[in-house]
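Budget justification, computational time. The allocation requested in the original proposal was used primarily to generate structure tokens for proteins on the priority list. As evidence of use, we reproduce two of the resulting records. The first is shown immediately below.
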Amino acid sequence: MSQISLPTPASPTTRWMRLVSSFCRKQPLGAIALFMILLMLVAALFGPQLAPYDPLDTRFDAVLQAPDADHWMGTDSYGRDIFSRLIEGTRSALFLGITTALIGACIGGGIGATSAYFGGRLDVFIQRLNDVLLSIPLIVSALVVVAVLGRRVVAGVDINLLMAITLPYIPVMARVMRSAALSVRSLPYIEAARALGFSHWHVITRHLLPNLVSPWLVMVSAFTAQTILLEASLSFLGVGVHEPTPAWGLMLSSVSVDVFINAPWVILFPGLAISVTVFSFSLLGDALRDELDPRNTH
């Protein structure tokens, strides 16, 4: 009797490669954005090895030097290499952007899912509180937090700046995740789990939250773009990252009108870095939304 050979299950690496290949084929713009983000991550991780000069090294004999073979993006008002400072600034931009987006998305997602699950007075209280917080512009809320708390650096990280960027996005995430959780809460398997006597914690963590991963991922990508822009705005206003730490927004704030007219590269390249990064994360978020939408049949 001939034996029936069963197909060998694909390894996790093979499955991931297939998912990435499928994503790149269906979402070419999202694939380009993902490639740009990976390049930025490489620059953030290996910045000291990739930077041709010390980003803090001042050379007054090379002040406002135009881009050439030695300085690909020119130098600033202190003779510092702009290309090296951009690479080093990628680390602070991505660290603050991704970290604050993840923290805000986790806290806000948990609040939104809990609010939708329990409903009643708890839901009403949380949503009215969200209405108050959402009425405050993001930049104003962040400025207030920084002004009240000041600076508190731990292990090279400004904890208060991290909080100032994170807090404004919590109510936004809570509102979005509540909307998504309301449609999931009414599904039969949620009602079945509650009828079987499972605890609220079990139902929320094992049945509700896993079905909210798709909108959560999309919002994390969108939040990362917004937090990078918010961090650059705070640094531009002088309440974010301080000198001499390389930061894209800080590089823009130190440019006067006379410097911009005579040396436009000083503001061109930092502004381009912010624009490309924000656009890449926004484009990736749109691609993830289209790819993870169950109504999209491609």
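The second record produced under the same allocation is shown here.
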Amino acid sequence: MADRLAGEGYAVLTVNPFYRWQASPVVDAANDWSNPAVREKLFGYLKQLTRPIVETDAAAHLAFLDSQKEVDSKRRIGTTGYCMGGAMTIYTAALKPDRVGAAASFHGGGVGTDKPDSPHLLIPATNAGYLFAIADNDDKETPNEKLLLKAVLEPRKPWHEVEVYAGAMHGWCPPDSRAYDEAAAEKAWARMLELFKAELA
């Protein structure tokens, strides 16, 4: 997926958010997500991945990208996140609002909640355009999330889209996912490119 995005002309950095606890690959053929022990371990890592840690890493990632000769630091940066990465895209956009121009969340978890520290509450202070591609079964579990996202996005000028992908299950985007839905994944990919075209040009 990173190679495909690079093929669109973007400099792409793919990170292991769990590097503090385990070197890549965190999940592979021998340690499949369907293994309960692997899931338990990953959820343990996730609990430790707090917003301050995400922000520390995001600042380092952005600085690294800007130091690369392939990166035009005069142009804004886009960030994408899948599942738990959805909230990370918002944290990154809020951390560097003048640097991050686009944030795309695919079947993101916990991006809009009724908690006082919900990630979506940071959106008004950012300058990014946003794409929230929501899984059908996630929407059935948390139907209010799309409404919370739309409430903070619709008053803003930047490009934005919040859509529930009917029939697409959580995890539908990565081609190696058991929930992969090619048609829905291609649609989400195309919408991400539209976001990037609108906000990173």
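A brief technical remark on that second record: The chain has one domain: 2-199.
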